[in-house]
Every structure is written in structure tokens, then in C-alpha cells.
Amino acid sequence: MNRREFLMTSVAAGAMMLAARSAFADDKLTILGSVPNLGFPFFVHMLNEIKAEAQAQGVNLTESDGQNSATKQTADIEAALVQKVNAIVISPLDVNALAPAIEEAVKAGVPVVTIDRRVDGVQGILAHVGADNVKGGEAEASAMVAAFPNGAKLFHLQGQPGAGPAIDRNKGVHNVLDPLKDKYQIIFEQTANFARAEALSVTEAGLAANGKPDAIICANDDMALGALEACAARNFTDVKIYGFDALPEALVAVRDGKLAGTVEQFPGQQSRTAVQIAVAYAKNKTEPKEKLVLLTPIVIGKDNLDKAERLSETK
Q: Mean pLDDT in the chain?
């Protein structure tokens, strides 16, 4: 099946799904909530928070799992436009690949609020709500520097190329470390695409080629947990590993001393704020007070676990 056939099939299926949903409650507004991939716990949490806020706002929600495919997420947007949804809240898989579909929505007069991943190339997006990922990367690298005041050799596992958070977190890490490269040397740097299994294999390769580092900075928690597994297999339990996202599993690892820290970016607050902005505009044309809402991430360690948004989910 070529891309055009896939899109047509997906749009038709999505339209049938939306039609069935709207038949039960056509007096309510309907919004599309779309995330890149429900295979990642971070996006499961984000979509759950979108769903909870939509319910609190009294609107219908059509859920979209991009399944790690820009084509699939594009088709979901186009299906939603066919059914004339009232607003779209989306975290785009790839900020460039999703730009045409988002632009199509804007031109159709559908308010779009992006979360987590910002699309700078499209004019007319109602608002963006996210974390300041550059500051998050800076905080992550600064935490590592504080742990090794005399210098360190480190690995850096980067996120998915083309994803806004990956780009910004990488920038933040280098903002801190590049001026200090005489003391803090990145001896191995490679993408692991935000994936745990890939981070495991990438870290294993890095260890085989470069030996044990003092620390590993990872662009998300899944990669940090994969790196942790690789280090544990070699009994490198003293390597300080830093993640990003403050997933419950990562918080447990921080609590137990297995991870040195993780960056909290408050995805639930991002999601709920985005829905509030989208619904307010869809209902009353209320413009957001700010077009760009950026939350400041913080590093979670053993000493401030109580600041983590998802602490109650830990076991």
C-alpha cells in the first residue's frame, strides 16, 4: 500500500470512528488529542491527562495514537478535519513532517494547540504549551557537573532526530558542557531515538569501545533505564546516569540510588493547560494570554522526590 492509499484508508477509518462518537453527543464540542506514540509511557500519561481535562471541560475527545508514524498522525488529523472537530491538541511526532497537516488545520479555521513539541514553521497556531527543553538540558548537565566538580568523562545519549525536545535538550546539554570541555569530555555521543532497547545496545557499544564513563546523560528516562541495564550487566554500578521525563519507573530508580537524577517537565500540567486554551477558544474565541507557555523543568534527585508530578504512581 502506497502513502496515498494509506492516507485515504486511515482518513476513512478515522472519519467513521469520529462519526460514531459524535452521534452520541453532537451537542458537545469535540477536540482531537494526538500524541506521537502510546508505546512510550510518557505519552500514555500525556494523553490520559488530555482525556481527564477534556472530561472536566465537558467536551468530547477523539484520541489519536501516532504509532511512531508521521503518516499515521497526519491521517488522524485529516480525518478529524473531515468530521469538523472544534479544536486540536497535538504533540507532533516530527515537527517538520507534521507541519503540512497542522497548516491545513489552521487554514480550515480549526484552532491548534501544540504540546511538548513546538512547530515553528506554521503560522497561525493558537498556542504552544511545553517545557523549556533547552533549560531542561542545561539543568541536567549542570546536575552532572555539580556531582563531579573535578571533571568527568561522559556518554551522551541523544533523542530522536527531528523531534523538538531532542533538539532542544541536546542544545541545553552542550550549552553547559561545551565551555567546560577541558574538564568534562563527551567521549561517546549517539542517538538512541528515545528507546530503551536501543539505548541498551548503544550503551553496550559505547562501553565496549570507550570503557567506563563517570556519567551518562540521556535525553529521556527510557534511554536512561536502557543505559542503566547495560552498565549493570558489567557491574558498573557507580556510573551516574541522568534521565529526563520523571517517569514513575525512573523515580523509583532515583529513590533506590540506581539513577542519579531525572528531569521533571510537568507533562500533565502541559496537557491540561493546552486543553483549557483550546476549549476556551473553541467555545468563546477567547485568545490565550500567552501564545507560548513554557514550564521550567527541574532535576529530581533523592532530596526532592516530592516535587515529581507522578510520585504517587511509584511502587
A: 92
First to last CA, the chain: 44
Nearest to 218 by CA among 244, 252, 187: 244
pLDDT at residue number 9: 52
Name the E strands within the chain: 30-35, 60-65, 87-90, 112-115, 127-131, 152-158, 184-191, 215-218, 240-244, 261-264, 292-295, 298-300
Residues 250 and 314 sit within 8 Å (Cβ to Cβ): no
Query: DSSP characters for 41-83?
Result: HHHHHHHHHHHHHHHHHT-EEEEEE-TT-HHHHHHHHHHHHHT
User: For the segment 245-261, what is each residue's pLDDT rounded down to a tens digit?
Assistant: 999 999 999 999 999 99
In the predicted model, is pLDDT for residue 15 greater than 60? no
C-alpha cell at 232: 549493570
User: How far apart (Å, rounded) are the C-alpha atoms in residues 240 and 296?
Assistant: 23
pLDDT score for 1: 56
d(CA 253, CA 302) in angstroms, rounded, equals 10
Contact criterion met (CB below 8 Å) for 66 and 72: yes
Chain position carrying cell 492509499: 5
Cα atoms in the 13 Å half-sphere on the side-chain side of 46: 32
Cβ contacts of residue 104 below 8 Å, gap of 6+?
77, 78, 81
Give the 3-state secondary structure of residue 285.
coil
Q: Please report, as a single letter, which amino acid is at residue 140.
A: E
Residue 172 contacts residue 134 (beta carbons within 8 Å): yes
103 within 8 A of 138, measured Cβ to Cβ: no
Quick one: average pLDDT of 217-239?
Answer: 97
